[in-house]
Amino acid sequence: MDDEIRLFAEGRPAAPPYPAEAREAARRLLLDEAARPRRFRVPWMGWQAVGAFGLTVALVGGVGVALSSPPAPGPASGGNGPQSVSVAPPADVAELDPKPGQFIMVESETMYPSERYTKEGEPPIRHLYRTKRQIWKSVDGSQAGLLRIDHLEPKAFPGQPLPQEGLENEGSALHEIDGHCPSTPDSLRTDFAYLSTLPADAAGMREHLYAQEDHGKNTPDDAAWTRIGDLLRENYLPRAQREALFEAGKTIPGVEVAEGVEDAAGREGVALGRVEHGLLTQLVFAPETRDFLGERGTVVDAAVTGAPAGSVLALTAQTRVAVAGELPSAQGAGSDGSCEDLSRQQPAATPSG
Amino acid sequence: MVSAQALLDGSHLDDATVIGRSVDQPELFATVFDRHAGEIFQYVARRLGPGPAEDVVAEVFLVAFRSRARYDRARPDARPWLYGMATNLTSQHRRAERRRIRAMSRVAADRPGSFDDRSAERVTAEQLQPRLARVLSRLSPGERDLLLLVAWTDLSYEDVAQALGVPIGTVRSRLHRVRAKVRRSLGGADPLSLENRDG
Questions:
Q1: Residues 122 to 141 of B: which have CB under 8 A from any A CB?
Q2: ipTM score of the complex?
Q3: Inter-chain residue contact B4 with A351, CB threshold 8 Å
Q4: A124-153: per-residue pLDDT in tens?
Q5: Which of A34, A52, B128, B136 lies 20 to 30 angstroms, CA to CA, from B198?
Q6: Where are the beta strands (DSSP E) in chain A?
Q7: CB within 8 Å of chain A, chain B residues 99-118
């Protein structure tokens, strides 16, 4: 190195270490961004799903209670908030009847593993993070929606102490979420209007589940199973499609049906379960109506998951589903930009000055 | 479905592979943050001070995340890419940088006799800083970016060229010019003229 350069290297000011709080805040921002709906995956939770263990990126699970609802007025009528809500047992509740221009609001509680890599080559630090989520999605995907995440008290990862740092245990965040992006294929839509057009019979639905062309490194069976979760979480399907989905799911190799499986809200339902990466993931449905209640992830292989067999690493409940005439105030919400990202070509770094 | 193995293996894969996989598994990008955020922070903190550096580093990784699909996967080390974004974002904080340079120029004078407990290396740095601050204040922003990437990081000239988005020949010729300027400034008697620098 030349003398002049060496002089600058030696005269380099001392730099303080990255403050832990700032580091966590920056990391959380990044993860919130990663959790936004984007591309062809399910989105909204993404990151949280991180837990790995084969939980999909999708995450929330849930629940379902169907709620009866008189057709809600459109936005012009000044309707505000859910038009109807019911947490009644899903037995004999009427089906929702959302209209274009309205929003489907799904409220859920989630628990998924979180892991942080702090040093290269060392195992990650883990805990189970918990949230309450409320999502408003445009009925036909034509408008932006909203996602509110409130962090709940985290839990220790089975067999490990609760870490002292890096927990997402407080605060809430509001995110705008894009509707259906014009550049993505229809087959990746999850809005109610689209879901209503899916086959209402098991054979047709099965064909839909296996119709995805690109499943990366996953097998077609893995991809079909993943698609089921993606269609269910934080969405609302008409009863015929829900029933078809349940029946089609049973035919995927590796899927087993179990009765009396509890969701995070303690509701028992009938579950479709499949083991992937040492974890049994069960999607729990209301026995009668096939409303999606929630999701449960139970360890079957301790070596693969790093947690004792039988321990529960994922547990969710969709506690409320309703139709809303319009979005609540989105003041302070982070913008989404997923659609923009898909179409924009960002210029490469250029030298400044 | 996110492959558990892919996630668990994240810490053993090179940056290019992790970034490539993060296109479909966004949460994997956290590994890139975990690996490099500390180093990028230190560089930006040296240039702008710790407060502005916190904002810049958060922004660097958001911008990087959003452009991850365009990352050149032929490059296993993501640091030149991240330093390039850090450099661009730092340039939006010229005012903070001017304050920082002014502070550097005062270090020795502000703390007379306060070196007792410090390492010799640190003392040397602090004694040098007022002079270097004077030099830095006379470089154009682009020259400063180049000089400090070369002097304050362990990036190779090729890495610096990649970070700045210019050919390596350009890095060499610019550096030659910067060195000449530095020599003149160190040897010259011009008064400190920080207040007149624009940004």
A1: 122, 124-125, 128-129, 131-132, 140-141
A2: 0.80
A3: no
A4: 678 888 889 899 999 999 988 888 888 888
A5: B128
A6: 103-116, 125-138, 145-156, 172-177, 256-262, 268-276, 279-285, 292-299, 312-324
A7: 104
